[in-house]
Design a protein that fits this description.
Strand content: 5-15%
Strand order of the largest sheet: 2-1-3
Shape: elongated
Largest sheet: 3 strands, parallel
Radius of gyration: 17 Å
Length: 102
């Protein structure tokens, strides 16, 4: 029986996305630092398992995943101040200039 600590990381996109690649980078760094003391597992896309993207919080809170990423827009109901992170992506007019947020 292995005494390695299992770390399960997951997200809601394919393995090729920037977020998934970031999870892999985190996993590689943890493995590099701790070696055989850890066993990293990945669930690239929880939606492939029938979950919704917003379920990732529940999966982490209940221990099914150790770590997961989530868009700030899913968290504003819990932490309204995070809504500021979405402001650069809101355009009041359909044809507003994309550099207007700069």
């Amino acid at each position: 029986m292995s005494s390695a600590i299992q770390i399960r990381m997951g997200g809601y996109g394919p393995e090729s996305t920037g977020f998934s690649r970031a999870l892999k980078l985190i996993g590689n760094e943890i493995t590099s630092a701790l070696g055989d003391a850890v066993d990293i597992k990945y669930v690239w896309n929880i939606m492939d398992l029938g979950y919704r993207a917003e379920d990732i919080l529940w999966l982490v809170e209940h221990g099914l995943l150790t770590l997961g990423y989530q868009s700030s827009s899913y968290l504003t109901a819990r932490v309204p101040e995070l809504g500021i992170a979405d402001l650069p992506f809101r355009r009041p007019r359909r044809h507003a200039h994309p550099r207007a947020a700069e």
